[in-house]
Amino acid sequence: MILCFGMDSFGMKYPKSIQKRINKALKSSFGTDELSMGEVNINDINLDAYVGLTKVRLESIINNEEIIGFSTFASSKGKNDLFDYMVLFDNELKIQQVVILIYRSSYGGEIMAKYWLKQFVGKSNGENMEFEKDIDSISGATISAPEITKGIKSLSLLMTDLRLKEKI
Question: How far apart are CA 160 and CA 168, in angstroms?
Answer without folding.
Answer: 9
